[in-house]
Amino acid sequence: MNATLFRSVLHISALCGLYLSAAMFVPAMADLYVGHPDWQVFAMSGILCGGIFTLAAVATSGPPPVFTRRFGFLLVNVMWTTFTIVGAIPFYLSSYDLTLAQAVFESVSGITTTGGTVLVGLDNLPPGLLLWRSLIVWLGGIGIVGLGLFILPDLRVGGLSFFKLESSDTSEKTFSRLASFTRAFMAIYFGITLACAIGYAWAGMSVFDAVNHAFTTVATGGYSTHDASFGYFQSLPLLWVATFFMTISSLPFSVMILLALRKRISVLRDPQILAFLGYLTVLSTLVGIHHHLTSDVEIGQALTHAFFNISSLLSTTGFASQDYTLWGPFAVTVAFFATFIGGCTGSTAGGIKAYRFVVLYGVVRAGLQRLIYPSSIAIVRYGRHTVEPEVQRSIFLFLALYMLLWALGAIALGALGYDVATALSGSITSLSNVGPGIGTIIGPAGNFSTISDPALNVMSALMLLGRLEVLTVLVLLVPVFWRD
Amino acid sequence: MNATLFRSVLHISALCGLYLSAAMFVPAMADLYVGHPDWQVFAMSGILCGGIFTLAAVATSGPPPVFTRRFGFLLVNVMWTTFTIVGAIPFYLSSYDLTLAQAVFESVSGITTTGGTVLVGLDNLPPGLLLWRSLIVWLGGIGIVGLGLFILPDLRVGGLSFFKLESSDTSEKTFSRLASFTRAFMAIYFGITLACAIGYAWAGMSVFDAVNHAFTTVATGGYSTHDASFGYFQSLPLLWVATFFMTISSLPFSVMILLALRKRISVLRDPQILAFLGYLTVLSTLVGIHHHLTSDVEIGQALTHAFFNISSLLSTTGFASQDYTLWGPFAVTVAFFATFIGGCTGSTAGGIKAYRFVVLYGVVRAGLQRLIYPSSIAIVRYGRHTVEPEVQRSIFLFLALYMLLWALGAIALGALGYDVATALSGSITSLSNVGPGIGTIIGPAGNFSTISDPALNVMSALMLLGRLEVLTVLVLLVPVFWRD
Ligand SMILES: [K+]
Ligand SMILES: [K+]
């Protein structure tokens, strides 16, 4: 590990921290506008962090190092640590009394676009704090799409090398393409957020609620401005608007970018899109019909709430329109397993993700066939691509570690005294960046306000691990990583 | 698919069915001895089944086919279906009033050495029924070891080709070696059963209890002759005797056979033995200490019960000495995950099994290293052997399908109205052939007597799928299997 590498990692992280610090002036202005004293917290934090990061950026400036895997891994970890710290400062200093573990949890939950919250009485919170929550989710969404599009494929983490944007070009062309990709992505991200906000306002939300929920919808973050989440609004059209935008936000941005830049509709034939929309439709319909048949709720309403809440789980957004854990054990078990699944790779969604399931399906198909014809060469395909054995191995590595972390997290939560439903679902809802779990404490009707500090720390670690695709963090634990 | 193949499959299955029918005369004699009318049920069933299978065996006799994979897969499925039917007949016809689904569940639970029971009032049951339960478990144990040693490795199911007994010899030598292996296995199986029975009798059990529990211990089956299982005896030394024999019975018989035949102590260096004893010791110690610290139970007693119940889960036996789900959430979450793990390959234990975890560890290690040095050739080892990519793939195929079946099973149980703890644990305890789950219904203090017929059918299917290493059954669903 050489000094240039560390210096450069700190430099880029400081620049990112600087951007995030600048965002603090948005909630500062909101609180100043309504006359809430928290505006000083945001303004002072912004000035302080801004100053520190400016100094740090200057002190660490210099020629950039060659991009190596070590550099990439270290950069991602230090960047997200920086985001966590900057995000937590206003929570910790605000008028809302939080422990350090709670402030860190709320920050991590935001920047990882998880959306589980330790705050209660959201309806009466000052606008600054609410805006800060929504903002770090929205910015966290940009961070995660950038990571998924530009960094993780180069690091070959979890079999994502497919999503590498043509790297065979010369480096200059690559750079100009990267710039045009970034512009296209930002335009699309802004565009969806704006469209979502307009949709929410049209369906009855106040402008403030519409903006906040649009931020956390497009980032599949799930923070709400009301304790009852979408249950507060009691509007079926609004649920469909949200369902539409949660689903859109779980589709790969890479595909949307290519669609915008190349105008070729064929890019929509990404198999993971079909898989995601497929399991979303099947599970929502089954839960809706089951709920209708086992209650006196009429079918339209049952399907609306089923589609909303199941999309919310599969897109890893985490909004809730009702306590669906009261719909009976079928809905609860589906909700539990939905928490593992997730959306598409290249979106803001978390979880195992549709792409990996598509490959897994191919591997299982090929494997069963080889049981009968052992000498048959069973090629696993992803659309028009062949999935190389190396990529298959990466996906299995990811899955094995994902399940291991889930189990260890759940056992840790059990050891800290939480019942089995809370432990099993709390671990996976953190790791998959969903938000709500099952059970009475952290279920859709609950929140994380009563969770003890040690348990919050476990969940914060799981959220970061899940958000950074597990391997990006765990690679730091391999001794050889630190050797020269 | 040709006729010779079907004929031969039916022939071998009929011979196996005949052996199992002959076993019915043991409970018949026991019931005749105490004067219970059920003796007629067993005698008549034995004569009837014996007659049918004799006819079937004669009608299907002929030259054996060449051993192909198709033949192997079909044989295993038809054999275990035969066992299920023969096992269920006495339950269905006995004085104990059972539905067909309950009788089938009890039979499957026995022959798969699972040990979950729909019978209550075991303490007052006639000896014939109790002996029949223990006998089918014990015979099921022989079946599963034979399957694991002689058939599955040839079918290359789930990465078990390692455990193939040297196949490079000429076929005549192989046959004589097979015969000496079989003799050695039967001697060891008898020997352990006898030693276990003597141990139980020494520690205070009646001869009848000692024999029954020895049968179900060595087969890691877990049927007891008392509703309270080992809780009935209230004896700490007895728990240690049981812990010892449950652990022994989870070790690979292949190793014990080699030890007996070749007298080389080095065969004990099978990495899965170390792994199994390692996680057994760590989990038991943690649960014991945690139980001691969070209650007023003294450390010796806490550790005794922890070792007994955790060994019972990891060996997939399923005995219980106490309702360990009352020891707090840590014990419950550990018990839940212990249900997935299982013992060693080549034993009567079920679950994912230590061997696969050893390989998984190697794959994870190699994968993390390749993240840093992508061009490094990371060889995965199992002891002195290299784990070929094909074997790694088989193991992943197994794991993926195992988790999928667990999820589908749990969702099915949820849809049938069972709470999330019962659904999640009921599915995996069936698939792993453990027996007890968590929750109030099927937890260690409960049983399967109140479970509805459809749910019992789901669990019976899961028990058979798990016992036959999943792939052996699922391969029948591949259309190409049935094509010529
Ligand atoms: K979320
Ligand atoms: K068992």
Automatic annotation (TrEMBL), chains A, B:
Alphabetized UniProt keyword annotations: Cell inner membrane, Cell membrane, Ion transport, Membrane, Metal-binding, Potassium, Potassium transport, Transmembrane, Transmembrane helix, Transport
Domain of life where this protein originates: Bacteria
Subcellular location: Cell inner membrane; Cell membrane
TM segment ranges: 12-33, 39-59, 71-93, 130-152, 184-203, 238-261, 273-293, 326-348, 354-373, 394-418, 458-482
Single GO term (MF): potassium:chloride symporter activity
Database matches in PANTHER family: TRK SYSTEM POTASSIUM UPTAKE PROTEIN, TRK SYSTEM POTASSIUM UPTAKE PROTEIN TRKG-RELATED
Family: Belongs to the TrkH potassium transport family.
The protein, known as: Trk system potassium uptake protein
